[in-house]
Design goal:
There is one protein chain. The protein is built from 2 helices and 7 strands. The chain is an alpha/beta fold and 171 residues long. Strand 1 and strand 2 form a beta hairpin.
Length: 171
């Protein structure tokens, strides 16, 4: 398995491209994750195929509007440029444990860097395995206030590190 750092950076037009996908290791993953490799003879040529069985929320993925209702778009219906662009990482250092992410937290981390059309990545110092119930999970939560800030700034996509809780709606 390659490390994320070994194939991290490339170029797509004027952009420096950074590979942010999480590596899925079936040996260490606690959720359903299995890879079955087998040889198949295709017109006299031996070829290896893999069957991959994982949960849909495992690894790096896009939360499509379709995930939240049947009348919304699926990922295939969204233009690629919605997901590519100038990226800005906001490390939220002022968030309290288990708190809602506030405008103050975002503004402090931003320091004027976020521009209209950016792809925003959020993270905090409170790292935890997502979708695992644990009393040690102290990650801050998204809030209406943070969503309004994203809209005001005009960001086109928001991504989350393991330091942001997106799987529990506490507001």
């Amino acid at each position: 398995m390659t490390s994320p750092a070994s194939s991290c950076v490339g170029r797509i037009g004027p952009y420096r491209a950074v590979q942010l996908s999480k590596i899925i290791d079936p040996e260490t993953e606690s959720r359903r994750s299995e890879v079955r490799r087998h040889m198949v003879n295709v017109q006299g040529v031996n070829d290896y195929h893999s069957e991959i069985d994982i949960e849909s929320h495992l690894g790096t993925h896009v939360e499509a509007p379709y995930h939240h209702g049947e009348l919304t778009k699926d990922v295939i219906d969204l233009p690629f440029d919605h997901f590519a662009g100038r990226g800005v990482l906001l490390k939220l250092e002022t968030c309290e444990p288990n708190a809602l992410i506030s405008r103050h937290d975002l503004e402090t981390a931003d320091q004027g860097r976020v521009r209209k059309g950016d792809v925003l990545l959020l993270d905090s110092r409170f790292q935890s395995e997502p979708f695992i119930i644990s009393p040690d999970d102290k990650r801050p939560h998204l809030s209406r206030e943070s969503a309004e800030w994203f809209l005001e700034k005009g960001v086109k996509a928001v991504g989350f590190g393991d330091g942001i809780c997106i799987e529990q709606n506490i507001e």
